[in-house]
Design brief:
This protein is of the alpha/beta class and 410 residues long. It folds into two domains: 19-61, Arc Repressor Mutant, subunit A (Orthogonal Bundle), CATH 1.10.10; 72-356, no CATH class. 44% of the residues lie in helices and 6% in strands. The protein is built from 17 helices and five strands. The chain has helices at residues 19-32, 40-44, 50-61, 72-85, 89-93, 101-118, 132-136, 141-177, 184-188, 195-202, 216-226, 229-233, 335-338, 343-356, 362-365, 382-385, 389-402, and strands at residues 240-242, 253-259, 283-287, 314-318, 323-327. The protein has a five-stranded mixed sheet with strand order 1-3-2-4-5. A hairpin with a 4-residue loop joins strand 4 (314-318) and strand 5 (323-327). Helix 4 (72-85) packs across helix 14, helix 4 packs antiparallel against helix 17 and helix 8 packs across helix 11 (216-226). It is globular. Mean pLDDT is 51; it is low at 1-8, 132-140, 172-389 and 399-410. It binds a DNA duplex (21 and 21 nucleotides) through residues 1-4, 6, 14-17, 36-38, 50-52, 54-56, 58-60, 87-90, 101-103, 105-107, 109-111, 195-196, 199, 206-207, 209. One of its GO terms (cellular component) is nucleus. Residues 9-61, 62-116 form the HTH myb-type domain.
Amino acid sequence: MGRSPCCDKVGLKKGPWTPEEDQKLLAYIEEHGHGSWRALPAKAGLQRCGKSCRLRWTNYLRPDIKRGKFSLQEEQTIIQLHALLGNRWSAIATHLPKRTDNEIKNYWNTHIKKRLTKMGIDPVTHKPKNDALLSSDGQSKTAANLSHMAQWESARLEAEARLVRESKIRSHSLQHQLGSSSSTFASSSSASTSASALNNNNKPEAQRPPPPPSRSSLDVLKAWNSGGWLESNEGNGGIVSNVGVSGDLESPTSTLSFSENAPPIMNGIGGENNNNNDSAMPMIEFVGNSGNSSSLVKEEAEQEWKSTYDSSITTTFSSGLHEFTMNMEGTWASESLRTSGSHDIVEEGFTNLLLKTNSDDPSLSSEDGGESKNGDGGGGTNSDFYEDNNNYWNSILNLVNSSPSHSPMF
DNA sequence: AATAGGCACAACCGCAGGCCA
DNA sequence: ATGGCCTGCGGTTGTGCCTAT
């Protein structure tokens, strides 16, 4: 694993980019694609290292970047995804179209993190700051559930991101086959969001990965499996891990069941619970159901996207108290889909399903307000606070939603 | 008006890992 | 199998702007 020197430090400019430099970089990429970033600066006449050029492009100059203030929904999505994924900004960014991981990271560090801190919520764990004791004595079963959800979602997101990348690769490969020159960037860039896609787009043919199998769902399942997630749970004394692989592989439906009576089975999941013998530990159950869920077939705007993606995944989380369904509709649709009329679905899919969990259950509404708005972390009612995951999400969102940005809380 | 402090954001740094010769 | 190249990623720093004093 040799690590390449970033660049020759001598004679290369650092610091803020000038409009002239931006123009040079833009003009070059529009005409030639970026190709090798290392070689780009010399070709483009820039006194910058390739890495600097790449960052400038991916974080600022790319034409498909939405700049400006984050919407409330975007903010909520970031909070929720961060609770699930932690500081995996690139994974979070996959659910915020047109936002870069760097932008999201900065926004988190400068805005959301501070808000949560002021609200008495640990921005790392998304728990009230005085919840540590609860976790250590095994009472925070919901935290364990959430941790497991996070693991599941993390694996899913990885697979999703992989699929999106491969989809883009395929798209660009098709474009290439159709005779597009390297300048296809200029016309297709609006439909290409991630830097990786652009990278692949401009890679020499030999460097491009082979086209993925035509059925995207296969890739998802493969990714799930290759991630070791399912295997790691097999024989784990209670976890049923199964993603249906027979027949139609599309639209996997995963059911996460929490059984109040099941023995502790979450070994290795969620650090604070590894040695937990609490009989109340829920059973987590994944049930693959690949054949029945309603497939959402999306029409591609472009001919190269004729292949349909079955881009719905339904994830049902059920507990003794609540059951809510996550319909991952479109979340691994291609970027082309995002810009061809399905954007809203894609952009809002995960966000909405998350938000949905906070409004579906009327029993939650009675717990809005006072308790969750206790900025100091709850004051002795944390066991209630962690009654279930929904309460947790609800509390975060209510705090965010009910507190205008100019309020003292923020 | 000058200045200090805080804030927001762009950019940089360096590690990790995939790919290829 | 090995080593170099390249990119992705997360953490950190630098800098300009805004606001309060």
